[in-house]
Specification:
This protein is mainly α. The chain has 23 helices and no strands. Helix content is 75%, strand content 0%. This is Metal transporter Nramp2.
Length: 532
């Protein structure tokens, strides 16, 4: 065989140099891409995500969905249970006990259907997060102009602060009960504020450790309220009738609105779309995305089934104990434990302390998830990349400072805390459209979701549910302002705020694509003529 000529050798050397240059160029592009992406706010860093491995089906094509695996379901289990805690926060528990005391078993059917509606909204939130690889706040940042983005962020922060005040005060009440009044309400608030550091401590040990801690808190709630359910011995026939037979009277309208309103928490919609990104799922592999959506749907359904049972326990305990009694109209989160003690007495495990333990678990778990949601909301809308401890501290301060002020000002009587709770419910109800409308807008857009956009039927169902929730909460707002707003100046201020509020909702709906184009053009002309 003849040796290669000098010309051939130089040609090979040139080809090798070109290949090396091309490899270097690709490497630099990859580094630049990772650098630019690192400048963007993300829910979880790559090293924090849980790797979901195929135990039995390694050869499955990326375009097809692998067969069901119990081991994989276990790896995907977690985000849904963190999301479900918002269905069990102290505000929800107060709605449950008041519904039971005033309406008896008659609103259990509504509690069930409200949970189904909440499940639908949360499944859409998870779908957005998995299909796009980004959470709702990040997507809103790109979808809307700066002014609308800032308004949405401000509204989300208001909703979060309102929810957090209820949750922190709920924890403080539980601490007061368990310490037999040794700690005043404001001291309980400060103790609860320390959960921020517990959260940071757990997060440093990984996502699974954090999820396990929340699972323990949910188990504590379930055991506490199930124990109370067993002590109360509610009427099984009436309970079943309450679930299966829809009943509603003029006397229970307010409680019915409260039951539905408590289920949809605006910050929870943002939270769930971020939590699902704790697992490594490549948005470019359709089979893997669909698989993740399927597993998250199963675990979210299981989580909300557990939350429904806990809410059912609380409602039926107070229905059995106080429905038709003189205490029914005055019962609230503050005095509920003492009323239970008067009704059922002490015993080996006094029901007052069982209630206190369950309430503490509800308050602590919901305040920590509130801190979590606050990080995603602030980081997503404002694209802030801060250290975890600093971001959590800022988020916690947003709620703790007003909560301490509220605890000192409203700690004069039980009635004043009930008034505060009503105002906080109204505040959160006002924010619901600003989470639901962007969610439904994005989940219906092919440019955002690709092949995972919802179909026409599910889109109509989702908008119908969202419209129903908004109308129900609108009734709550109207009823509240009619009874609370007095005087010409307050009336004018409320009217001006209402006009701006409705105008922004109309703007969001006009951007959603749900309205006919002729209607949207008329709306834009109306806004333009108003601006001129």
């Amino acid at each position: 065989m003849s040796a290669p000529s000098r010309g051939e050798e130089s040609k090979e050397e040139e080809e090798e140099e070109e290949e090396e240059e091309e490899a270097n160029r690709l490497l630099k592009e990859e580094e630049a891409s990772s650098l630019s992406s690192s400048e963007e706010e993300v829910a979880y860093e790559a090293g924090e995500k849980i790797l979901v491995v195929d135990f039995e089906f390694d050869t499955v094509d990326d375009a097809s969905v692998p067969p069901f695996s119990w081991k994989k379901l276990w790896l995907f289990t977690g985000p849904g249970f963190l999301m479900s805690i918002a269905f069990l926060d102290p505000g929800n528990l107060e709605g449950d006990l008041q519904a039971g005391a005033i309406a008896g078993y008659s609103l259990l059917w509504l509690l069930m259907w409200a949970t189904f509606m909440g499940l639908l909204i949360q499944l859409l939130s998870a779908r957005v997060g998995v299909a796009t690889g980004r959470h709702l706040a990040e997507l809103c940042r790109d979808e809307y102009p700066n002014w609308a983005r800032l308004v949405l962020w401000f509204m989300a922060e208001l909703a979060l602060i309102g929810a957090d005040i209820q949750e922190v005060i709920g924890s403080a009440i539980a601490i007061q009960i368990l310490s037999r009044g040794f700690f005043p309400l404001w001291a309980g608030v400060l103790i609860t504020a320390s959960d921020c550091f517990v959260f940071l401590f757990l997060e440093n040990y990984g996502v699974r450790k954090l999820e396990a801690a929340f699972a323990v808190l949910i188990a504590v709630m379930a055991l506490s309220f199930a124990w109370m359910f067993g002590d109360a011995k509610p009427n099984g026939k009436e309970l079943l009738m309450g679930i299966l037979v829809p009943r509603l009277s003029s006397k229970t309208i307010r409680q019915a609105v409260g039951v539905v309103g408590c289920v949809i928490m605006p910050h929870n919609v943002f939270l769930h779309s971020a939590l699902v990104q704790s697992r490594k799922v490549d948005p470019n592999k359709k089979g893997r995305v669909q698989e993740a959506i399927n597993y998250y749907s199963i675990e979210s359904s299981a989580a909300l089934a557990v939350s429904f049972m806990i809410n059912l326990f609380v409602t039926t305990v107070f229905a059995k104990a106080f429905y038709g009694t003189k205490q029914a109209d005055s019962i609230g989160l503050v005095n509920a434990g003492h009323y239970l003690e008067e009704k059922y007495g002490g015993g080996v495990f006094p029901i007052l302390y069982i209630w206190g333990v369950g309430l503490l678990a509800a308050g602590q778990s919901s305040t920590i998830t509130g801190t979590y949601a606050g990080q995603f909301i602030m980081g997503g809308f404002l694209n802030l990349r801060l250290k975890k401890w600093l971001r959590a501290l800022i988020t916690r301060s947003f709620a703790i400072v007003p909560t301490i002020i509220v605890a000192i000002v409203f700690n004069r009587s039980e009635a004043s805390l009930d008034v505060l709770n009503e105002w906080l419910n109204v505040l959160q109800s006002m924010q619901i459209p600003f989470a639901l409308i962007p969610l439904l807008t994005l989940v219906s857009k092919e440019q955002v979701m690709g092949t995972f956009r919802v179909g026409p039927f599910l889109e109509r169902v989702a908008w119908t549910v969202a419209g129903l929730i908004i109308v129900i909460n609108g009734y709550l707002l109207l009823d509240f302002f009619i009874s609370e707003v007095n005087g010409i100046l307050l009336g004018l201020l409320a009217s001006s705020c209402t006009t701006a509020y409705v105008a922004f909702i109309v703007y969001l709906v006009s951007q959603s694509g749900i309205l006919p184009s002729s209607w949207v053009n008329r709306l834009h002309k109306g806004f333009s003529s108003t601006g001129n």
